[in-house]
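User:
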Amino acid sequence: MAPIQSLGARAPSLTLAVCALLVAVGATPELGAALCYEREAAEAGEIWRFATAVLTHLSPAHLAANLAVIAPLAWWIEVRSRRALACSLAIGTITSTLLLALAPRELLEFSGASGLALALIVFAALEGAAGGPAPFRVAWSAILALTLAKLAAEAIGPLRVVELTQDVELWPPSHWAGVAAGAASFAAMRLVLSQDRRGSSARETSLPSSEVTNSSATGALARWRCQRPRGTTQTEPALTRCHSPAPRSGRI
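Assistant: Predicted structure:
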């Protein structure tokens, strides 16, 4: 991704839209009930629940915890590349959808955007560890290592998070799916970036020689105008002393 020039270089409209959607669903219990994953309802034909479960949460605390991760990381990614954020969110949603469609029958209900949050964590950590100053690379690498350690601890046994009104049992496969989505998004964006560079290089090498000649002549004229003595015009003899360099051919 291109390096960020300033924190306000790009309005994080996609980040704001995603956060607003999560808040809207969380603030409307009826909508959340219609979108969360329920096995009986999904088997009865409400198949959209496989995809929309990532928009729902079990409590305000559950929503706040995910937003605290999603909002800053989505913003960090979007101001660098909106295409990268869209890719991460799309792959994260597709991965979650497929996972729920293939979930064991013991999973009766599911809600939460933790898979999306982990996809963004992994993408940002890989991107940050791949370039930039050494301290930032070390910090992002540490974040990635801690995230994987947390998921390994979850896999050892079921962890329970006590919230304000209920106990929520974590489902580790949803978190590992988020990690896979983040890694896949990072690989996809690297491939796209590589193809963009290759295409740009091919366009430069295929530039016609006439365009190269015209470009050289234009450059020589611009240099003459910068060096022309003050008070002279193009009709004065000074023009005859300007010699354009010989046309170049080949690559530019």
